[in-house]
Every structure is written in structure tokens, then in C-alpha cells.
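pinning this so it doesn't scroll away 📌
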Amino acid sequence: MTKSIYDDSGENERVSSMEKQKKNHNIPYILQLPSHILGEIFRKIQIKTLLQCRFVCKFWHRLLSDPQFTEQLFSGTTCLLLRGCGSDHLATLKNDSLGPNDVALKLLKDTIVLPKEVNIVSSCNGLLCFYKLDSWNPPYGRLYISNPITGESLALPTPPDENVISFPCGFGFSPMSGAYKLVRFRGTSQWRYEPYREVLVLTVGSGAWRSIGNFWYDLDYMLYGVCVSGFLHWIDWSRALICAFDLEREVFQELPLPPSWDLEGRNNISRLDFSVLQGCLSVTVTVDSQRKMSIWVMKEHGVKESWSLELTIGGVIVPRPCQQFFRNGRISLKFGDGPVLLKFGDGQVLLFNGGKLLAHASGKGLVDVEFDGIYLISAHVHIPSFVSPKHIIGG
């Protein structure tokens, strides 16, 4: 078929291409970059500034609102939620050390705003669960889930007895179902202490707490459970075991304490603390009489033989931070946050102790990590995210 000399489709295509090039010429080059290159640029920007970048254009907003993209974006980012007297900060941690015998940590500060009178329960996947004390009389306050970067918060239903801070609780994520859950325990007697407890579970988004029965563990040693591998963990000191709650099946599992319990002697150990180190459950064993701290990591969750002694730090005294809470009309005390925050690939460990951040390297010992000279009340590891709390209420 002979093409007509009046067929101008080819000319139209050339004109359309020229107009497209002219249009793109007027768009800044950075807005035309592919997502993987943008990701490398975004990694070099402070988080609060990055939050503002969502409003540059529709493409950036869509990209920075994508949970999968932001998860990859922040995968190599280490952040600390630092609470000072009257100020809260999200600090991005840069490890510039050259090896295990060198200490070179830098903190890049972003100021965030959290309500006053807040007890942080847990940080999970960029979301913060906290309890806000509103009154010294019932109902005392409420539980919230918040994204401290975006400033969005979601109020959660109050447990049946309203007295949220009387007994241990925990916030975690089940990878199998993708559900976020809160677990809370309450005593069967209002007037006297009993280890016999009722277990309450709230699946975020369901709107109501569920009772799943009673149990006999004594979890008074620590207030907030630590979430690892889809389990919340507490210590039963009286039975010398770790009580792990499976968030998916909603059943309890007993895990062994690290060998220090037997090596040091139960009566010599002054405190035990949980943390999450490189994705594994870690227990820090402190012996005040020897000014020694041993850091153990369970490399394979639930396997006794996988306990590994990662580090022993000498010459350190860990005070006994406590949480205040109500029980039967009086104030009681309970252990607060553990001293060990992070462990890096080069062997360095970051501690929070006595209102200060300390870094430990094998050749340097303990070194102060300066943060604007602020006396810190608490420090929590926090994975940044732009996910809204409202996006998880479909569970």
C-alpha cells in the first residue's frame, strides 16, 4: 500500500516528540531521575527534611509514601529516639569508625514533638506505642500509636479496668499475619498481689480488647515486653526463665536464660535487661560487685544452644532505672529501659547509662557520645518510617 503524500502522521509524531522534549526541558532534572537514583540521594538527606520532600511533586509524594520504598530507603539508617528534659529528638546515628578499636559516632539531630507525661511502651516498624498519663485518678490515661516523624497519632481503646500502667504490657508485630497487637496483663484480685493473671489482647484496628484466659507467670521484673521474631518477651525471675508470647498463635513459650545465670550465680546478678541486637534477642547481665556487664545474644530464636557471649564490659556501674506505676492504690517500682542499645558490625556497642550515651570499642573502652550537652531521660532505638498509624487499623 502506497503511503499518501497527505498522510502527516509521521510529522505529528515528530511534533509530539519535540513538544515532549520541550516540556521535559522545563522540568528540573532532579525530578526526572529514576527511583533507584533518587533513593541514593534521599539517603543523604536528614529525615525531617526528607519528610518535606514528599510535597515537592506527585511522583515524590507517591514514592516516599510507598512502604516498600521507604523500608529499603531506611534499611541502613540507625536512629535513636532521645528524650531530654522538655525536649525530644530523633537522632540519626553515623558510624565513622575505621575498625573495632576506633570510636567515631556522630548524631544528626531532628527535633520531634511528643506529648508530655508519656511512657514509651515500644517502637516497632517505625511506629511508637506510648501511654499518656492524663490524670492521677481513674481513668489515668490512654494508649496511643504514633509516628513521631509525621506527628500522626491514633488513640487505642482503653482496657476494661482502665488502669493501664498497673501491670506489664507489650506492643509488637506478627510477620505472618501482618497484624500489630498489644498484650496486657491484669491481676485477678484488686486488693492483693497474685501471680495469677488474666491476659488481654488488642489487635490494632479491631476496636476491642479480648481476654484469652489466665496464666501463672510472674512478670513483675520488667514492665514492657520486647518484641523479636513475632514474640513479646518478659523475664520470670522467680522461675529463672524467659516468658515469650507468640503474637500469631497467642500462646506462651518458655525460653532459657543465657548461661550467665549459672556461671555468675543467681545471687550475684544485680539485673537482667532485654534488647534487640541485629535482629536477635539479647540479654545483658550486670554484676555490680564486679562492675561487669555481659552481653549475650540468642542467634537462633528459642534455641538454648544458640546463646552467644558477644561482649564483656568491665568498669561500668549500671544504675537501677525504675518506672513508677499504680497498684492497689499505691505507687510501686519496676525496671525501666536496658542499657544496651546497638551493636555494630565492627564490634562497637552503644549504651545508654546514667543519662548519657556511651560507645564501647575493644581498644578504647567507654567513650562519651556528645549530644548537645543534654541530660537524657531515655533512649530508644527507632526505625524511621512515613507510614501513617491509620494505615494499620485494618487488622
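📌 and the second one:
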Amino acid sequence: MPRLVLTVIGDDRAGLVEALADAVNAHGGNWEQSQMAELAGQFAGIVVVTVPAERADELREALDGLEGLLEVAAHPGSEEPAGADHWRRLRIDLVGSDRPGIVHDVSAVLARHGLSIETITTERRDAPMSGGILFEAHIAVRVPPGGDPADVRQDLEQVASELFVDLTVGQE
């Protein structure tokens, strides 16, 4: 069955996920994986679905019919790359005073080492007792065969010291 990656966005309100799930279900689709959240008054997300090949076009048309409620774009998905199960996984957590450039500097290290980001979650929140704003990030990455997690950790620790953020790197 073909996999579709759906990107969705709409004004946040009740019933958005239900409307999307109804369309997927009505066309024999299976909701496999998703990441969705309310951000700045918008409900946004990514959903991976499988659908019988003969019903894929019907599903795309039904998703177009959600316009006004949700904007949905359907992209062809693929299976996990061959050999991906041999990649090691790392979890990176950081927290520190918010400032521009944190995601840029950390992602540059990850790209330099050829790491693939599986998930990244970030948020800003009030700092207890200091009155400032904290930036927090949680990142799950895959290290390709031949990659050295110790080298990645060392480079991330260097960046963390320059950014004045606390960093934890661990194997998953």
C-alpha cells in the first residue's frame, strides 16, 4: 500500500483531527504516525498514512475538500532507507537562556557529523526565579554506521559551552 505524508494546518479549533481521520478512514486508509500541535493559534502537523493504491486519488480529493477547515498537502512517502536499522540513536536535551541561533548552532554540528534528525521539539518558557526566558530542546538523532557518538558529543559540548546551555547526550 502506498504511504502518504500529509502536512496539515488550520485555525485551531475542536474537531480538526476527527475531520482528517474521517477522510482517511472513509477511503480505507490507516493512520500510522503523526506529530501535531497548536502553535501560535494554528493547529499544524504531519501525518503518515497508508491507503490502498486504488483509493489514493479518492483520498487526495477528499483531503482537498477539507479546505476551509484544514489545508492538507499529500506527499508520496517512502519506506525507511535500507540499512537504517544499523544506525545508532542518540537523544540530545538542552536547556539554557533563550537567544537567537541555538537551533542553528546545534543543527550545524549534527549536519557536520552526517546525523539524521528523527524528531526535534523546542519550546520557550519562563525561567523559575531568574525572571528570564529559557529555551529547551529535545532532539532524537540517528548516527550513521561509522559515525562516532563520542565525537558528536564532544562537538556538542563545545557549542553548549559557547551558548551557555546545559546539555545531555545519551544513547537511546
